[in-house]
Amino acid sequence: QVQLVESGGGSVQAGGSLRISCAASKYTNNGYCMGWFRQAPGKERESVARMFRDGGTYYADSVKGRFTISKDNAKNTLYLQMNSLKPEDTAMYYCAAGPPRFLNWCAVSDFEHWGQGTQVTVSS
Fold first, then answer.
1. What is the rounded average pLDDT for all residues in the chain?
2. Can you tell me whether residue 56 is helix, strand or coil?
3. Could you give the 3-state DSSP secondary structure of residue 28?
4. Which of 13, 24, 44 has the alpha carbon at shortest distance from 95?
5. Cα(9)–Cα(22) distance, rounded to whole angstroms?
6. Would you put residue 78 in left (φ > 0), alpha (ψ -120 to 50) or beta?
7. Segments of the chain assigned E as strands
8. Which pLDDT band holds residue 123 (cuts at 50, 70, 90)?
9. In this predicted structure, what is the pLDDT of residue 25?
10. Cα–Cα distance, 90 to 54 (Å, whole number)
11. Could you tell me which of 4, 25, 104, 115 has the fewest CB atoms within 10 Å of its CB?
């Protein structure tokens, strides 16, 4: 059973940094798609960053150059380092995982398992 537990959210001023974590069950080390999504009030959930089976990554244009997704397999933990935060980054951030169909790509539909979310609030 895949379990995902996020932590590390909080409040930060614009321009600041925050790192959020996702403790995952060992099952996700089997080349699973891993990713971060976010949802702000009144908005649809959006994909922020994804990591593919071959280690490749995808970033939304809105976070490219500011956010970095990484994974520590020894600790079964996924991270999202967020720098130069903006008020528009304020959202609930969700960790997600799922079995990949391809080696070097994960579609949004590939993500089957979700964490409970961690809130990130950026003030101006």
1. 95
2. coil
3. helix
4. 24
5. 11
6. beta
7. 4-7, 10-13, 18-24, 33-39, 46-51, 57-59, 67-72, 77-82, 91-98, 113-114, 118-123
8. very high
9. 85
10. 30
11. 104
